[in-house]
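Retro notes
What went well: the complex prediction finally ran end to end.
Inputs used:
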Amino acid sequence: DIVLTQSPDSLAVSLGERATIDCKSSQTVFYNSNNKNYLAWYQQKPGQPPKLLFYWASNRESGVPDRFSGSGSGTDFTLTISSLQAEDVAVYYCQQYYSIPYTFGQGTKLEIK
Amino acid sequence: QVQLQESGPGLVKPSQTLSLTCTLSGGSISSGNYHWSWIRQPAGKGLEWIGRTSITEITNYTPSLQTRVTISLDTSKNQFSLRLSSVTAADTAVYYCAREWTHSGFGWFGPWGQGILVTVSS
């Protein structure tokens, strides 16, 4: 199974500041055949299901604010929130769909400092 | 827009079979290039993909649950279901159903159902 390790486990950032969450894969999730990274990011607020933020590592889902960005390739990926808003408080997960079984990172809890 | 809703018992006794159903509204479970997945989340913990099915009836399961799990599709009811046998307390979790956007056989999840808490206890 592909193991995804997120860092940090938790993060406190001041409103308006940048938040960065990393996701490292135990093996590449990049397919040479189509030049795509098989990685998604989700946001989960308390009491709610996860919500898709990015697929193909950097394709923003419709309706996701552009202060959110996804980057990286191969085994190393980053979710960045350029200017933290109060509504961004949540747990964030990465997920690989390179191979079955699909796996998720352990999650990163983002709070306001 | 497409919405998913889980239903089923919230309490299951140890050694019995957990059975959940996911009903799709706003779309057809038979259309498009999708798979239909179950994912679970123990309280305060992370997400675990359980398995998936599709209109082709080909299923995939996570290895740790493969001997106990069955996921099936009912196109006439626009539903798919999860059966997990021989449950223990370790199977207590919120269970989500989700649509997988499938590309080249694999994909990401969206939308998700609201989730249903299933507790395994006598």
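What we learned: Residues 33 and 103 of chain B are 8 Å apart (CA to CA).
What to try next: split runs per interface for comparison.
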